[in-house]
């Protein structure tokens, strides 16, 4: 049976959305095309009508996952305009975020996998990282700090690293300690005055 262009476009979006979640849960190499397509309710044969390769899908899914993460940051900022950085930290460095691997930060779930992928996947991650750094830079710049870009890089690194470490340990107290320590260090980084040259 032939599929309409509208249905084909909807199927493509479904596959990208499902893949963005399943890749975060299993990694790029931890799930095959058959299971990805099954998760989207489609056959593996439909894949090749929609995507040039699994890497093409991985790049599209990575872009979607990073857009979703950016949307969550924006929602947290909008919900707490009096302390936007605090709002981002509160949701990002939380037990809830740690437990939601399929819907969590793709930088935590897939960065090490992305480092081993081709340039298209890396480009998706690079664009997402730059968008996150821009938001953090703006939030930090509101403190009238001329070193906002460097601090944004440090803050993002602390956030991603702490969440990654909190997910790989069994000890829930240690997992929480990573998140708490990161939040404390981030506040110190942001509050510290510009260093003299």
TrEMBL record:
Keyword Transcription regulation: yes
PROSITE patterns xref list: HTH_TETR_2 (PS50977)
Listed GO MF terms: DNA binding
Full protein name: TetR/AcrR family transcriptional regulator
SUPFAM superfamilies, per the entry: Homeodomain-like, Tetracyclin repressor-like, C-terminal domain
DNA-binding region in chain numbering: 32-51
InterPro entries: Homeodomain-like_sf, HTH_TetR, Tet_transcr_reg_TetR-rel_C_sf
All residue ranges annotated as the HTH tetR-type domain in the record: 9-69
Superkingdom assignment: Bacteria
Secreted is among the record's keywords: no
UniProt entry keywords in alphabetical sequence: DNA-binding, Transcription, Transcription regulation
């Amino acid at each position: 049976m032939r599929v309409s262009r509208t249905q084909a476009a909807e199927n493509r979006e479904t596959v990208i959305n499902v893949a963005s979640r399943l890749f975060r849960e299993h990694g790029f190499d931890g799930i095959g095309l058959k299971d990805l397509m099954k998760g989207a309710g489609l056959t593996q044969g439909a894949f090749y009508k929609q995507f040039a390769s699994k890497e093409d899908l991985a790049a599209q899914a990575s872009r979607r996952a990073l857009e979703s993460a950016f949307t969550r940051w924006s929602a947290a900022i909008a919900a707490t305009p009096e302390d936007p950085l605090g709002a981002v930290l509160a949701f990002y460095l939380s037990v809830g975020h740690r437990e939601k691997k399929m819907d969590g930060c793709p930088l935590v779930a897939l960065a090490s996998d992305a480092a081993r992928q081709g340039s298209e996947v890396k480009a998706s991650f690079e664009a997402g990282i730059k968008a996150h750094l821009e938001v953090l830079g703006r939030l930090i710049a509101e403190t009238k700090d001329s070193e906002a870009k460097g601090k944004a890089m440090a803050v993002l690194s602390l956030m991603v690293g702490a969440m990654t470490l909190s997910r790989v340990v069994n000890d829930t107290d240690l997992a929480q300690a990573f998140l708490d320590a990161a939040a404390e260090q981030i506040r110190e980084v942001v509050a510290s005055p510009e260093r003299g040259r």
